[in-house]
Amino acid sequence: MEKLWSPWRSQYIDSIKEKDSSKGCFLCEAAKQNASDLDNLIVDKGKLTFTILNLYPYNNGHLMVVPNRHLSNFAELTADENNEIMLNLQKAQKALNNIFKPEGYNVGANLGKVSGAGIDDHIHFHIVPRWNGDTNFMPVLGEVKIISQDLITTKNKLLEAYSKLE
Fold it and tell me: Over the stretch 47-89, which tens digit does the pLDDT of each residue have?
């Protein structure tokens, strides 16, 4: 069996463990912000959820759809929350298709620390655009993940794409 090493991921998880939990949940704080503000990474707001760029993306356009309500248990999501999450994942895919034209996607959630969740106390769902050949030697040999576009540029493109979907 071949192994894929991702040392940047363990550094990210360690950095979250070290943060002061008394500051509260950053996703709960993000839920209170507006997508139009350029000082945050939110790209869309729903009634029960919001969509935000991942601060530590695996690829350009890596988004998370997050319920406004602070919970960690997948089974506690309401039917309305589930519906809005799925609709917003579809909406994210449409916006990402318009901007980046990826060849595929990873969509999912890490439930619990042992599953790889860097943030395990506020459930969230990832949608990661993928392209053939989007992994290379840099993360393994150089301990560097290359993201070719800064987050604010990506946010501005996504805001424009989302506005065209409505």
Answer: 999 999 998 888 889 999 999 999 999 999 999 999 999 999 9
Do 120 and 112 contact (CB within 8 A), yes or no? yes
SS3 of residue 91 by DSSP: helix
- Residue of 62, 70, 122, 124 with catalytic role: 124
Helix, strand counts (H, E) of the chain: 4, 5
Where are the chain's structural domains? 25-165
Active site residue 70: no
What token pair was written down for 82? 């589930």
List helix spans (H) across the chain.
Answer: 7-18, 26-31, 79-100, 151-165
- Identify which of 101-115, 125-139, 147-161 has the greatest average pLDDT: 101-115
Structure-token match 């939110």, residue found: 42
d(CA 114, CA 48): 27
Task: Give yes or no for residue 141 having a pLDDT over 60.
Answer: no
User: pTM for this one?
Assistant: 0.80
Q: Which fold has domain 25-165?
A: HIT family, subunit A (3.30.428)
| Tokens coding 133 | 């050949």
Whether the CA torsion 115, 25, 147, 165 is positive or negative: it is positive
Contacts with 71 (C-beta within 8 Å, 6 or more apart), sequence order: 77, 122, 123
